[in-house]
Design a protein that fits this description.
Keywords: Kinase, Transcription, Transcription regulation, Transferase. With about 240 residues, the chain is an alpha+beta fold. The chain is built from 9 helices and 5 strands; from the N terminus they run H-H-E-E-H-H-E-H-E-E-H-H-H-H. The protein has a 5-stranded antiparallel sheet with strand order 2-1-5-4-3, with helices on both faces. It is globular, with a radius of gyration of 18 Å. The model has no long low-confidence stretch (mean pLDDT about 85).
Amino acid sequence: MTSTPREKELVDTFVELADTMVNGYDIVDLLYRLVTRCAHILGAADAGILIPDSHGSLEVVASTSERSQLISLLQLNEEQGPCLEAYHSGQPVTVDDFDAIRNRWPRFAEATGEQGYTWMHAIPLRLREEVIGSLNLFGDQPGALTAEDALAARGLADIATIGILHERAFRESNLARTQLQHALDSRVVIEQAKGILSHTHGVDMEEAFRLLRERARSTQRKLADVAREIIAAASGR
């Protein structure tokens, strides 16, 4: 049986991400790869991942664009939206008509429309009965995910869960919390470095992130380490 191009892309993605996790890996770069592949394969405009910090507050750890990050942050600030519902309920949440949920999530519905999104699908990241975050897809074209797409998204969400916790976290919950906090702390440093690169090179934040990842890969270093170097250079230290 000949597989379709999308099926091959899914298989290639699972293999690539699984290979990445065999040895030590950069969790932020792994999750960024995952959301980028997820958006591309499933025909979404953007994708992002939320995980809780050490105090249990959800934060954005990876996103494919500034606008999807903005919508995710808005949901966190307003404490409303499908990302939070998927996280708290442990069940996938699909919104394909923002007008229909204006009474329930008014700020979310308004902001997503302003950003040009037409649908959203949030999938909880689950480890057995525990929910450790959410994978969120944003669409700007008519038609939400099909049942087949949703199943593929579920598989990619499982990869994200494994990538975040890894097998060591199954044995030691303190290590799991440390890994999650490290990812969030790294993201803060990376955002600061993106701002510096954006200003110095006169590019937008997405291009700045591409430059940062390119520098990290070319020197075979972690994103957060390169980001700290950029911040130190900018501050004259």
